[in-house]
Predict the structure.
Amino acid sequence: MSVSVERAERAAAGDHGRRAGRLVDAALRFRELGILLVLALVVAVTAAYNPRFVSGQSIRDLLLNASIVALLAVGQTLVVVTRNVDLSVGSVLGLTAFMTGDLMAGHQGLPVVLALLAGLAFGAACGAVNGTVTAAARVPSLVVTLGTLYVFRGLDYAWAGGRQINAANLPEGLLTLGSGSFLGVPYLVAITVVLVAVAAYALRSFRSGRELYAIGSNPDAAVLAGIPVGRRVLAAFVASGAVAGLAGALWTARFGTVDATAGTGFELQVIAAVVVGGVAIFGGSGSVVGAALGALLLSTIGSALVVLKVPSFWLQAAVGALLVGAIALDRLVGLRVASALRQRSVRRG
Amino acid sequence: MAQAGGSTASSLTAGAPLLLLEHAAKSFGSVQALEDGSIELRAGEAHGLVGENGAGKSTLVKILAGVYRPDAGRLLLDGRELRLGGPADARAAGIAVIYQEPTLFPDLSVAENIFMGRQPLTLGRRIDGRELRRRVEALMERLGVPLDPSRPARGLSIADQQIVEIAKALSFEARVIVMDEPTAALSGAEVARLFAVARALRAQGAAVLFVSHRLDEVLDLCQRVTVMRDGRQVFTGPLDGLTRDDLVRRMVGRELGAMFPKQAVASGDVALSVRRLTREGVFADVSFDVRHGEIVGLAGLVGAGRSEVARAVFGIDRRDAGEVVVEGRRLPAASPTAAMAAGMGYVPEDRREQGLVMDLSIARNASLASLGRLRRGVFIRGADERRLAADWAARLRLKYARLGDPVAALSGGNQQKVVLAKWLARRPTVLIVDEPTRGIDVATKAEVHRLLSDLAGDGVAVLMISSELPEILGMADRVLVMHEGRLTAELPREEATEERIMLAATAGAASGASG
């Protein structure tokens, strides 16, 4: 609905700058459309080789595989638009996955919702640590979260102490959440879609959401504009942590088997998805929808390569090439847009 | 809102003080940036604030902006004492600051830039996009400037960025509008537009504080003026009857007999020869010579292509045609290394971005272009570096605490001295300086002029780009004027007048359009 209102406004706008406005819109939409296009291409090529790739079950699996990374990508986007980064998400996921597994295995009667809430709360606490050190002590988030990446993973190992939690010990309800579906839509996918929608709406339509972009676009100006930069950055980290915590609980629900290594190295996949999804790594622009689509694209390429019987080590090369290609393309489009905008200023001025 | 309306009404009745800052002091560590800052702004009045760099103007402005909390003194608005805990408080009180380089959000739209943090909301606390757009369009109409609210701020000219800032000020009914060096980067037409806006604000009952080094502009726009020197207010009063020289005398506290002290030097052989230099779409067919001992001024309006010519001569930008000859030797295109080896130095326009490494120390910056000479084996000795820096710091009368301090800690004028030191340490035979005194206080300006003059006296060929006509007229032995990428006039010192230069710089079409 909000999109249609915006369009109407744009249509009603004066003649001035309509072109520039459209240009920028096009550049922003271009990214999401571009990902969809590449996605369609990957699916089409793979389906031509093996038509079962587009069967209902296969598509469900594709979405299911992408959903946990997509979730993390949503949280990560909130942090990255503020010109920060959260490298600890993989470790937070691992830690909360084990924690919720341990909790549910130990107390069989607990409701499933409690597992999700526990994961959410614990993840938020981890995020609060990241956010507080970053915002209050002004340590670059790259360093802070690189540190907590190891700290949280260390805690995970200490807690697990070599143990492994198996599906057999987990309550049925939790496992159903991980693999079941409602009207053909897996619960996990539904949760992810809802979260993406909520985050997209919040980033677009609320002051605090716009302020995250403002902070990433120009931190000094954000301070001068009276934006509580520290609080907003802290909130972004708490949100990212909470989402990672939720993803950890869902991880346990989906895989049933959890040890201390769950989610190791996940942070790089997530950041790759965010960047491929068009979120500027230095903040200020990008959307959660793009980031989620980026996650879907990367995991679909992974599945496609398996179907196409391409050796798995090519996957990493493909992801890397896509990453570099996406950034180069962004840069190119950005330069074109910037020069078009400057031209306009010159002509008018 | 009610408060704002009420005071506007009262302000129109008399020139009562709207904002009063009394005896404000602020120090940073051992440096006393502001000792006794006082200012009185009246509604419906433009007030000039002048003083050298380091006189405490910026500190005073930042106190008004709520960025700094003063150590002493008090701030009264409408007779009520005001304590600003941050920029948001200042804004809420109706004080808006337009900085020299506006700090916008490049990725966000003009509308969002204006209303960031204050976007109109619907009942559900959602941002009301339609209302936002309506308000921004109304503001632009009030300012008489057609800016599209939905275009991103990226790519806006400095002048348009300031308009966005002013629109922001209007949007929260600011009654005190502080403009900190707003015209430094504007062209003549843009300054005129800004002044029209400032006069309109004044007519609407706002108090405008205009901070500028351009005294002519202060005389043009303002009714009263405050002069600051060494962190203190030394004069406040109406501008009626005051001349530029009166202001300068109060700023520096002594007679400046020779503001532009270029001494006559018998010029020698041609040091730099530029022939038919062309860069497509930027400038074309530029030819000139600079002789040893000569200062050649390159005048023109902002955007005429003067800096671009300098960059191409020094080899930073490629050239499409033409040649550059130094001491009889042709320089290869696009090679600053070759230009430096041939004895050329280039002090760029934008010292913060291009001239200095802001986080490095004074000594490191000063020696940066001379590392080859300082090198002993493969190492650079810190002691040599410091000796070189201390030597030049003394010669340029640099004001600093320690050579190990980052240059970011210096005032603008002293930063410019460090950039000059960096190039002078190489003992160049040809020196290109681009706006050598932009944003620099009067006393430092005079020192820079003296320095350039001394260099010419030592036989250095100097090409000086400047937007300030008095500087060009005072310093240059010969004046080149550019208009839209072409040389439109070459005037010897005795023939150069403001009128002739401005004519060539603006109506240069007559002679410039032919080629």
